[in-house]
Amino acid sequence: VAKGLIKGFTGVDAPYEAPLHAELTLKNSELPVEQCVDQLVMALTAAGALSGHAMPDGLTPPDGGVHINRITTAPEALLARRKEAETLPKVPLTDIDVNWLQVVGEGWAAPLRGFMREGTLVQTLHFNSVLHDPNNVTGDYNSATTDWMQSSFPRERVSSPVPIVLPVTDFTRRQIAGAGAVALTNAAGVALAILRSPEVYELRVRELIHRTFGMTDDEHPYVKELLKPGKDYAVGGEVELLGKITYNDGLDAYRLTAEELRAAFKAKGADVVYAFQTRNPTHAGHAFLMKDSRQKLMARGYKKPVLWLSPLGGWTKASDVPLDVRVKQHQEVMAAGELHPDWTVMAIWPSPMIYAGPTEVQFHAKSRRAGGASYFTVGRDPAGMPYSSDGPGHEEGDDIYHPDHGRYALMSSPGVGGMQFLGFSKVYYDKKDHTMRGKDESRPDDFISISGSKMRKLAALAAKPCPPTIPSDLIASKCIPPGFMVQKGWEIVSDYYIRQKTGDWVPYSKQLGGLPLAPNMRSSAEQPFGKVAFTAHFVGADGAQISPWHNLALYPTASEPSFVNFVCEIPRGATAKLEVQKEKPFNPIMQDTKKGALRYYTYGASFFNYGMLPQTWEDPAKKGFNGTVGDNDPLDVMDLSSRTCKVGEMRKVKILGDLELIDQGELDHKIIVVDAEDPLAASAASAAAAGEGGGLRLGRVPVERRAARGGVGERVEPLAHRGRRVRERLEDGLGGVAGEGGEAEPAPVKVGGERAASAVAGDGAAVQHPAARLHHHHARHRAHEALRRLVHREEDRAAAVRRLLERLEQQPRRHGVEARERLVGDQGASAAARAQHE
């Protein structure tokens, strides 16, 4: 046969006979190989001989087989959607919400295309999977509003281990009721996405916690976030990102979308990708796992395995190593060749950490499939943590999950598709060859366990490399074994633990900047909005710092007492609690903090600009309504104008009324205004003039029944009556006398029965208010709710204000004061001008 003596034995030398009825004809003499392969695969798939999803780039497809990318990038479409977002009801997002928005918008939770609707959430909680209809045979099941009586379902299921929900308050629920779409906004009020066909439902938080975490621990860091009061509802629906989400923290270059990441793997010639997730600095033990995984893959026949070094970038608990520290340390590990750049791609994964152990690690693996990973390296106790409080059957510090369960659950879980796992047990430091590896039980004394807590202690001690003979007590010797970590990487980690409380870190992916500032404001690029030290200073025409409280005039001109100057602190839609700082020189605007954390309004997106009146003060030593006293702050303002102000912007406004709030014995005024250039200003002025002796009232007057309990009350007094009362407060204010826009002379300020020097002059020294107590957060919420009852939707603003003014015209005289009286008593004007105003 080999010599060809027997003819026709194998049939190779026989004439070719074409089939009579060929199922597929490949003209391989005319078509390139790739095209022939595509045709063959398509034919085999149609015949049912192949299952699964196509991999055009040779990498693992995401769950559902479809790459999800909800980012709007085309310039014209992006401009149109941003304009649309300006007209939509707003849903404010927290830092965690922004992280989840990036996850669903970039396709990391495929086939999910937005925040979970209620039916999707129920499936996730009960099955750790969701039904998927890739061919849309059930009428767009994946984006349809939940139908509890539905009887026909798609049969394909994909992994969905963790709930991805958007919690909202009842206030927000009412604000967006009936809307066909809503805008999702960040803390600066900037729209990041549009959510279509919103489905609002009750968020059963306790059920979500028990089914996701399988335990009870209200001090658990992510559980604590879920249990924050007020978020009793959730909004589900598909999202359209208004451009790629960025954070402006110096790390955006490492934030690759799933599509960008797959392109990076292809550029390195990867024939397989394996992912390693980390939220810790990379020590030699981690490097051992990653390098050993690569060797195992090459032993299986792969030629170019590429490592995806995947630091978790979303929200993490306060005790975790900050994101910027981890990324910089990873860079040094790669630069040293420990993880060689030729076969390593470092890219931040955007998800927040929820610390849900075996359940969460399944999501970690699922999400890496969206990036093209076929293998996932998993170690001991993935996504686990100890209890944060004592409880039935456990004590604080006990492991919530068994260290071996997470890896086992992942490797045996359904819905993982073709992904395979590279599991490892705990690794130790080998004193003989100075490497990290599994323990050799034949010489146990040669191995040291270096726990995370031990590493942190050594880093805080600025431990140096140990001598050749490794001591048994590393802490006492203040040394780190050679080879435990790349030296420059160790220096970065050590620097963090030494300066942990004083350094300026990026704890997780948190958007910085983006807050619109007026041209007269100055802030530091090194301390942008979103950082605790963010400070916005007011400057004059000469560029010198000025005080908005003392150097700006209350009245635009002496001849227009019906109008005042309003200084914006919080633009409409922003949630950051920004305010003029009474105790700081020149009274800049900063964000309020509590226990070192930035504070935000959480009830919903405001429909008004919020700020203060310059040269006004509510005297805490003067008793007013029902025995209450002033709150020791400037007069607060709620601007109902359609125009969104910038931080620090001063606008000429018309006064419509005054909302009084009582908070723990303090009376806090919210002056209601409209911009002088707003179309409503003209009708407000004419209606007020026609309403001789008229009264303006908003909502109920529950203040009497609540004040006795020291609680919070509200009322809006008639415009005329408020003109007299607020004028009295202005006249009892700072007391400095100067020309318009000039510098007020220092005057004593009464504070809680004590006197303190008010050093408010050209030097811009701070006003000292040692007895100050701030209640803006609660008071602003109450004011927001009171106005919402009349201006509950943005498009109803004009009609609502007209209704208010009609009431003003219909009210009889009150307190013998004419309605034409206005808010007067400019503390910056001369005595003669003030008399003229009165």
Characteristics of this structure?
disordered C terminus, alpha+beta, six-stranded mixed sheet, globular, five-stranded parallel sheet, 838 residues
Structure description:
This protein has 838 residues and is of the alpha+beta class. Helix content is 26%, strand content 18%. The strands form nine sheets. Strands 1, 2, 5, 6, 7 and 8 form a six-stranded mixed sheet that branches. A five-stranded parallel sheet has the order 11-10-9-12-13, with helices on both faces. α10 runs antiparallel to α15, α11 (357-370) packs across α12 and α16 packs parallel to α20. Mean pLDDT is 81; it is low at 686-776, 790-795 and 811-838.
Provide a quick synopsis of the model.
Helices cover 26% and strands 18% of the residues. The chain contains 21 helices and 34 strands. Strand 6 and strand 7 form a beta hairpin.
Chart the SSEs and their pairings.
Blueprint: H1 33-46, H2 75-87, E1 90-92, H3 95-105, E2 114-115, H4 118-127, E3 129-132, E4 156-159, E5 167-168, H5 170-175, E6 181-185, E7 191-202, H6 205-213, H7 221-226, E8 233-241, H8 258-267, E9 272-278, H9 284-299, E10 305-311, H10 323-335, E11 344-346, H11 357-370, E12 375-378, H12 405-411, E13 420-423, E14 428-430, E15 435-437, E16 447-448, H13 452-460, E17 464-465, H14 474-477, E18 479-480, H15 487-498, E19 521-522, E20 535-539, E21 545-546, E22 563-570, E23 578-580, E24 589-591, E25 593-594, E26 597-598, E27 609-612, E28 629-630, E29 636-639, E30 650-663, E31 666-675, H16 679-690, H17 703-707, E32 712-717, H18 719-731, E33 747-751, E34 754-758, H19 776-788, H20 797-810, H21 831-837
Helix pairs in contact: 10-15, 11-12, 13-15, 16-20
